[in-house]
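User: Reviewer 2 asked us to show a designed sequence for the structure in our supplementary figure. I'm pasting the structure tokens here. Could you produce the per-position amino acids so we can include them in the response letter?
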């Protein structure tokens, strides 16, 4: 178990050591595409994610965690190659569709793999602590990739993408050393029927336990806010005359904030109730949004937002894993990513469209107003849900 956990840390480090994660919007602009094209690419990514999340989660639950992750890495290589060669819109659109499929093969499966490993030795109580460590590994990888990627991009964007392919290939080598985890109770019949059954059982579980839905809703709405702000910040700061190398350093601070959150989350989960976390953590994200349009306050704002979002993500995945059985784990965790993608389909192109017409500063202010309205509705629903649950328990 420990060997596979350490290999998983290494795999996830390589997975998140994406030299181009900061650069792709600027890369598309350099290639002659507009902010609207950037918005469309991100929308296609999330539309594909919405369509692919549950099927790929089902593949993981039925056919194996490692197989799902392997398919994701291979698809990612094809996606990068297409983006490097793309001279027309349809090729970059296809690249982002494939990139989304590679993402869905990993999302849900990553946490499910770790939880299943811990269950083998009855150590699932340590999952939140392991998630915190994983967050630190991911943030270190992202920090290094952001910094190094920005430096290499100053020399050549093509070189940056070429090195990304090499890193993916190394991650595949690490993955193949890891133990496969399959559903031992699964008896193969008809693949379409099996997938249908997984969807039906997942839906029944959400119907039975509404808290699963609210956990998914919380992460989806507010993680998408951070992602939207993050991806447009490169262009926004560039418009203000800030160099790519300086932007890389600023966003590296955001990763440090995520690391600190990863270290503290286990203690926070022990101290505060689920209801408190659901209501309070999104407030930290929303307050941070108002600082994004105003440089240099935006540097502190993106760091604060990352801190609260990291805690929110670790907390919600911990709560979900505790509620879901192994044979449905990747499927239900994929629904979490599906909700995130639905939010991004709205947030990302909206900010891009407003940014193209009125500038990104106005777009960020508009996003702040939108998420404030969403939060007012959200917190009312969450409070009502927990009041109703308390009444039900009292009546029983």
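Assistant: Here is a per-position design you can include in the supplement:
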């Amino acid at each position: 178990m420990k060997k596979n956990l350490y290999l998983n840390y290494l795999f996830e480090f390589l997975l998140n050591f994406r030299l181009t994660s900061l650069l792709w919007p600027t890369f598309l602009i350099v290639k002659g595409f507009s902010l609207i094209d950037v918005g469309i690419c991100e929308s296609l990514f999330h539309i594909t994610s919405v369509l692919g999340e549950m099927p790929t989660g089902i593949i993981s639950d039925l056919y194996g965690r490692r197989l799902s992750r392997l398919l994701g890495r291979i698809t990612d290589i094809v996606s990068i190659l297409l983006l490097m060669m793309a001279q027309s819109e349809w090729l970059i659109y296809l690249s982002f569709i494939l990139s989304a499929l590679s993402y869905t093969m990993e999302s849900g499966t990553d946490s499910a793999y770790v939880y299943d490993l811990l269950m083998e030795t009855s150590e699932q109580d340590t999952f939140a602590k392991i998630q915190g460590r994983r967050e630190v590994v991911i943030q270190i990888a992202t920090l290094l990739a952001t910094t190094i990627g920005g430096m290499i991009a100053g020399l050549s964007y093509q070189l940056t993408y070429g090195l990304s392919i090499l890193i993916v290939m190394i991650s595949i080598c690490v993955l193949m050393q890891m133990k496969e985890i399959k559903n031992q109770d699964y008896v193969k019949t008809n693949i379409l029927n099996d997938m249908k059954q997984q969807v039906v059982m997942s839906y029944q579980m959400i119907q039975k336990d509404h808290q699963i839905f609210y956990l998914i809703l919380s992460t989806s709405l507010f993680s998408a806010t951070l992602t939207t702000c993050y991806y447009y910040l490169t262009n926004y700061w560039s418009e203000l005359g800030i160099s790519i190398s300086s932007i890389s350093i600023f966003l590296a601070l955001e990763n440090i904030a995520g690391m600190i959150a990863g270290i503290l989350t286990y203690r926070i989960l022990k101290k505060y109730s689920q209801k408190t976390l659901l209501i309070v953590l999104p407030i930290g994200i929303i307050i941070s949004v108002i600082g994004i349009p105003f440089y240099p306050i935006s540097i502190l704002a993106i760091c604060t937002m990352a801190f609260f979002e990291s805690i929110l993500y670790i907390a919600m995945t911990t709560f979900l894993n505790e509620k879901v059985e192994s044979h449905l784990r990747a499927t239900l965790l994929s629904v979490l990513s599906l909700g995130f993608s639905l939010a991004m389909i709205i947030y990302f192109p909206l900010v891009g469209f407003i940014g193209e017409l009125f500038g990104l500063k106005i777009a960020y202010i508009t996003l702040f107003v939108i998420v404030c309205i969403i939060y007012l509705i959200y917190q009312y629903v969450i409070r009502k849900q927990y009041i109703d649950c308390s009444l039900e328990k009292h009546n029983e």
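For the response letter, you might also mention the following. The chain has one domain: 9-176+191-395. The first helix runs from residue 2 to 16.
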